[in-house]
Specification:
The complex is a heterodimer.
Chain A: E1 37-38, E2 43-44, E3 50-57
Antiparallel strand pairs in A: 1-2
Chain B: E1 4-5, E2 16-30, E3 33-46, H1 50-61, E4 74-82, H2 83-88, H3 109-115, E5 122-125, E6 135-138, E7 143-146, H4 147-157, E8 158-162, H5 166-179
Antiparallel strand pairs in B: 1-8, 2-3, 2-8, 3-4, 4-6, 4-7, 5-6
The chains are: A mainly beta, B alpha+beta.
Chain lengths: ~60, ~190
């Protein structure tokens, strides 16, 4: 893949785990705060960028 | 080795290294359903000019100001990747992307170019005072973040700030990368 296309045009939003919920729910798949700091190794920069999908249904309230 | 400061300023500064910054790929609403895709970057560095950031901060603080002329809409940042991941071309593997590997042998030209900041696309960072692994800024992957979002997030996401002169060096190299001209090979 050309490195000029950071985001694949073939990427499908449905390819990740999804769960419909109300708009008041928080996104899923996000780790606790400080996700980039590895407590065991006591270092930043251990982890890689990752994608988070949020799917929600607007409530009619 | 790069010099950093651990003191957190009240405003967003050029050279700030922040953790867990989100980039919104898209947000779509249709028929009452919302879908948002975002990328969470473990580490980013602020590249916007510090004078612009200072003016934005002053303008927002000044309640007597007649206008919002100095407001910024967004801040330029670039991701900081783990050097070992970059060597293997795997730093974006969680996004399903494979990047060109770079020879990890420090005696090889490709590796020397990277570490000596002779590759226009990258800026090598080796930290001493803060616990950050050897890293690389990828200028090609720059993006922008809403200034107010970043201002709020800085309170909990600030890691350190690259010191003056070092941050100017990074900024200058970023400006060169953006303005580079690739000449076609004439046959």
């Amino acid at each position: 893949m050309s490195d000029d296309n950071l985001f694949s045009p073939e990427y499908s939003p449905t390819s990740t785990t999804e769960k419909s919920t109300t708009i008041h729910e928080k996104e899923e798949g996000k780790e606790s705060e400080g996700a980039s700091f590895d407590d065991e190794l006591k270092q930043y920069g251990i982890s890689k960028p990752r994608r988070i999908m949020i799917k929600a249904i607007l409530s009619n309230d | 080795m790069i010099k950093v400061e651990e003191k957190k300023e009240p405003r967003v500064c050029q050279g700030d290294i922040l953790k867990d910054i989100e980039f919104i790929e898209y947000a779509v609403e249709k028929d009452g359903k919302i879908e948002i895709s975002k990328i969470l970057f473990p580490l980013v560095i602020v590249l916007s000019q510090d004078c612009d950031l200072q003016q934005d901060f002053n303008n927002r603080q000044d309640k007597t100001s007649l206008n919002q002329d100095k407001y910024l809409i967004s801040v330029i940042v670039a991701p900081i990747y783990n050097l070992e991941h970059v060597y293997r071309g795997e730093h974006l593997s969680e996004l399903g992307l494979s990047m060109s590997p770079i020879n990890h042998n420090t005696s090889k030209t490709e590796n020397k170019f990277l570490r000596n900041n002779q590759n226009p696309r990258y800026h090598f960072l080796e930290f001493s005072k803060v616990p950050i692994v050897d890293s690389v800024i990828d200028f090609k992957h720059y993006f922008t973040v809403n200034i107010r979002y970043l201002d709020l997030l800085k309170q909990t996401s600030f890691v350190c700030k690259v010191s003056e002169l070092y941050r100017e060096s990074i900024s200058q190299r970023f400006a060169y990368f953006l303005s580079r001209i690739g000449l076609p090979e004439l046959k």
